[in-house]
Design a protein that fits this description.
The structure is a single chain. This protein has a four-stranded antiparallel sheet with strand order 3-30-29-28, with no helix packed on it. It has a four-stranded antiparallel sheet with strand order 4-5-6-7, with no helix packed on it. The protein is elongated and about 130 Å long. The longest helix is centred in the N-terminal third of the chain and has 13 residues. Helix content is about 10%, strand content about 30%. It contains six helices and 30 strands. It is mainly β.
């Protein structure tokens, strides 16, 4: 460092932060300087304390013509501050005085306030706000203009937190070349709106082996099935399921009640349909319709169910009576009374007819004896709306409005009035009424149950262990569930808002087909034809529809070269 007085203070060669007005102020404040009344409070047009003396006039209050640069600095050769210079520097710092030759003269200065949106020729005075560093058009710091900011800490000295200032600014003046390169590399059209996608998605692959690869890999992602379940079910994707019914029957007077079971299809290819107080029989082979009988005055038909061979029909009424009809003679054989409320579900097991009542009781009626009530099961607190025997007659499944599924041993029970039977298994997984129930024809220990509104799930149970082996989630209430007799598939019918039929493969639970809006109202139930290829559905729109869902298996030809066709084939429906 030279001993002669220099215009600017000498600085060491090693790198350290430069001296800024904010640093000077911070150092002076740390010395507890006593502020004096500032002169510049009377100068409303001043916007920057760093005034170049060479451009100043005599009327500028920020230029001290009497003080010399040497005395103003008041710094010794070793950088220590003298007491006289310290007092003078404190007084100058408060007043915001800039002397010629000082370090302050190296900064760009502002001689006039600049306001955004104000024309250059405007001379109207405006109230000055706090200043902050702004950006010029080239992206650098503006040396002759300061944008007004109400968040500045010091009116005379710009803030030193440049990073925070830049982050608060809306920087739009980026380099056009950089923008073009960025848009080209990212594939963005700068003229389009951000987050708006107009380009088409990629085209699907044309690899012919991809479908086969997915089919072979599907068993790896399937849920584990029951002990006796087969995991080799493969859906034929080339099968076409019609989305329109084969035939539609008008059913005026059909009661729109979810808990009732109003149709049944017999092995003789006859369909029983309950319309309010009347029961009709429609012959699928001839198309004839006959009135079988009517309910007692003031009552209605609430359930119908055929025996497996189709020779007898059980009819449940709203007053609690259960009737037995001979289909060969179309005569009523007997009426069995005793229930105190409507009978909404029936199921046959040889000569035993099980009836489910609205009071939650299940009765076994032996139609051969006068005292028909031979067994009573009390395991539900709500109306029995689902009831079905297994094919071998050993187990009975029941579902109620109490969201409970019970599996009963058919040999338990008593004719006593105070007997409360104990079910073999009780399941409380459903969250709505359980009406949809079906035993699997190709796996006799598999039971499917479906929940109503608010549940929409089909649970598959093993009657051997009582465990749940699979679950199918559907979008809405399930009114019936049916197993395909000749393939490993499950059909479900649904209520509002979809009113659809869904077919899923088992046990993968992959959707095979869906027929939306099958009816104009919620689908209330279904029945499978004796041949196993056609499904009949009924709904609150007073229509009965027939759907060709499955294909019949190809039968082997005998020695004479002819093939057998059962009397129940739906090919006879015309």
């Amino acid at each position: 460092m030279s001993s002669s007085t220099a215009k600017t203070p000498s600085r060491p060669r090693h790198a350290r932060p430069g001296i800024t007005p904010s640093a000077i102020t911070l150092g002076l404040n740390s010395l507890s300087l006593s502020p004096t009344k500032s002169v510049y409070n009377n100068a409303p047009d001043s916007s920057n304390p760093f005034i170049d003396r060479r451009a100043a006039n005599s009327s500028n209050p920020f230029v001290d013509k009497k003080s010399s640069p040497t005395k103003a600095r008041g710094r010794s050769r070793h950088g220590s501050m003298s007491s006289g210079g310290l007092d003078h520097l404190a007084k100058d710092a408060v007043r915001g005085i800039v002397r010629p030759g000082g370090i302050e003269t190296k900064f760009d200065v502002v001689r006039n306030d600049y306001f955004v949106g104000e024309s250059k020729g405007s001379t109207s005075p405006r109230k000055r706000k706090g200043s902050s560093v702004s950006l010029n058009s080239s992206g650098g710091y503006s040396g002759n203009k300061l944008k007004s900011s109400a968040s500045s800490d010091d009116r005379m000295i710009p803030t030193s937190n440049i990073g925070a200032t830049l982050a608060s600014q809306n920087i739009q003046n980026t380099s056009p070349a950089h923008t073009a390169r960025l848009a080209e590399n990212l594939g963005i059209n700068v003229n389009q709106r951000i987050l708006r996608f107009h380009q088409q998605g990629p085209q699907p692959t044309t690899d012919p082996t991809l479908a086969l690869q997915r089919q072979l890999a599907r068993p790896l992602y399937q849920r584990p099935a029951g002990p006796n379940a087969s995991t080799g079910a493969v859906t034929n994707k080339t099968r076409v399921i019609p989305t329109s019914p084969q035939r539609v029957l008008d059913a005026p007077g059909m009661i729109d009640d979810f808990y009732l079971n109003l149709i049944s299809w017999s092995g003789l290819n006859q369909l029983a349909v309950a319309l309010c107080e009347s029961t009709y029989i429609w012959n699928a082979e001839t198309g004839n319709v006959d009135l079988l009988g009517t309910a007692p005055e003031g009552s209605y038909v609430s359930a119908v169910n055929f025996t497996p061979d189709g020779t007898f029909l059980g009819v449940g009424n709203g007053n609690g009576d259960v009737e037995v009809w001979d289909m060969e003679t179309t005569q009523k054989l007997r009426t069995m009374s005793g229930h105190q409320a409507q009978v909404a579900s029936l199921s046959w097991n040889n000569h035993i007819l099980a009836s489910g009542c609205a009071d939650g009781s299940i009765w076994f009626h032996d139609v051969r004896v006068a005292q028909h009530k031979v067994m009573q099961l009390l395991g539900h607190e709500g109306e029995i709306c689902g009831l079905t025997w297994r094919a071998d007659g050993e187990l009975l499944a029941s579902g109620g409005n109490d969201n409970v599924v019970n599996i009963w041993d058919g040999r338990t029970g008593s004719s006593g009035d105070d007997w409360r039977g104990t079910p073999l298994y009780t399941k409380n997984n459903h969250t709505a009424a359980v009406k949809a129930m079906a035993w699997c024809p190709w796996q006799n220990n598999l039971l499917a149950t479906g929940g109503g509104t608010g549940d929409g799930q089909v649970h598959f149970w093993s009657s051997t262990t009582g465990a749940r082996v699979n679950t199918l989630q559907t979008p809405t209430q399930i009114s019936s569930v049916q197993f395909a007799p000749h393939s490993r598939e499950v059909l479900t019918t649904h209520g509002a808002p979809v009113n659809s039929l869904m077919i899923h493969s088992y046990p993968s639970m992959s959707k095979v087909a869906e027929i939306n809006d099958a009816h104009d109202a919620r689908v209330l139930g279904s029945a499978v034809g004796p041949a196993g290829d056609v499904v009949c559905t009924y709904a609150g729109d007073e229509n009965v529809k027939f759907w060709k869902i499955w294909e019949l298996p190809k039968k082997k030809k005998d020695k004479a070269g002819s093939s057998e066709t059962g009397p129940g084939s739906m090919l006879l429906i015309r």
